[in-house]
Amino acid sequence: MDRKFHIVSIEDREMFAYNAAYNERQRILSHPEERIKYCFEFLKDYENDENMKKKCYDNLAKYSAKVDYSEAHF
Prior knowledge:
The structure is a single chain. This protein has a domain at about 30-70. Helix content is about 65%, strand content about 0%. It contains three helices and no strands. The protein has helices at about 10-30, 30-45, 50-65. Helix 2 packs antiparallel against helix 3. The longest helix has 20 residues, at about 10-30.
């Protein structure tokens, strides 16, 4: 059996790793529930900053409107 080896430079490996991590993060953050969770985690770090609180609460309101409640059981 003949095996072919492909030589990939260090820069290409770093680029592939960066792209994979970026794509994974975009896939996760495409769900509004994950965005809301991220807003709350971010808000913990900026409890004393009123400007950041406003931005977080604005984004919470924006993504809360996009949440699909069709499968929710109250």
